[in-house]
Design brief:
single chain; about 170 residues; alpha+beta; NADH Oxidase; four-stranded antiparallel β-sheet
Length: about 170
């Protein structure tokens, strides 16, 4: 799939089949994610891979009962690792760059997944404390985004986007 086609055809999937994802596809997704740009190339993020059904169910409850999360055979949790960025960028690295690194990495994983025929949906609504407890995070790691990945059970409707003249501001 050509890159622009990946962008134009990607949509949020909230209904997943139970079909497992081959390990070589997962490795390709992780390799693509590892190539995401990051502040100072410090890669101030971590990825937690959740396959266990019970843990996926706990995560879906911690995400305010978004049950589709547990349907996906793989759930990735992208976390900021501020101390990796703090070394070079001090407070701005802690407050901003590590968060940006995690979100860019999540975007790369989302687009790579779509290019390989998988569906995803970005989940940002969750109880941070509960997610921390479920995946046993240390206090210096911040959960930023949950990305369920799987084969789509159904194709979503196309959603309109903002008009470019409303979005782009020329100076």
């Amino acid at each position: 799939m050509d890159f622009l086609e990946v962008i134009y055809k990607r949509s949020s999937i909230r209904s997943f089949s139970s079909e497992s994802i081959p390990m070589e596809i997962l490795h390709s997704i992780f390799d693509a994610t590892n190539r995401a740009p990051s502040a100072g190339n410090l890669q101030a993020y971590e990825i937690y891979v959740v396959k266990d059904l019970h843990t996926r169910e706990l995560i879906s409850h911690a995400a305010f009962n978004q049950d589709f999360i547990a349907q996906a055979p793989i759930v990735l949790i992208f976390c900021a690792h501020p101390s990796r960025s703090e070394v070079r960028y001090r407070d701005r690295g802690v407050r901003l760059y590590s968060i940006q690194d995690a979100t860019i990495a999540c975007t790369y994983a989302m687009l790579a997944s779509h290019s390989m025929g998988l569906g995803t949906v970005w989940v940002g609504a969750f109880d941070e404390k509960q997610i921390r407890n479920i995946i046993n995070l240390s206090q210096d790691i911040i959960p930023v985004a949950i990305l369920p990945i799987g084969y789509a059970k159904e194709k979503p409707l196309f959603r309109t986007r903002r008009e470019l003249n409303d979005l782009v501001h020329w100076m």
